[in-house]
Amino acid sequence: MFCAVRLELELPFASSLKDKRQTLRSMKDRLRRKNVSVVESDHHDLWQRATVELALAAVSRGAAVEKREEIRRQLLNYEELVILDWREEFVKL
Hints:
Layout: E1 2-10, H1 17-32, E2 37-42, E3 49-57, H2 61-76, E4 82-91
């Protein structure tokens, strides 16, 4: 089972592209420690906006949902970003 998540983020405290990159790098590093693939896919040139896509694999839908919820809780604790939109899709192979 795979879960793909597309996030639209606002980074209200970023005052430059460098600030944005630093915040996103920190977020990506933390998620990758949990075996989640992460990529910034849009809004590369905007300071306070980002589109990030996540992918994770699990042995069952229940395990994928549990891991997705763990990721959601972690992202909601980030003071540096606001989740504007969260879209997810589960794919069974």
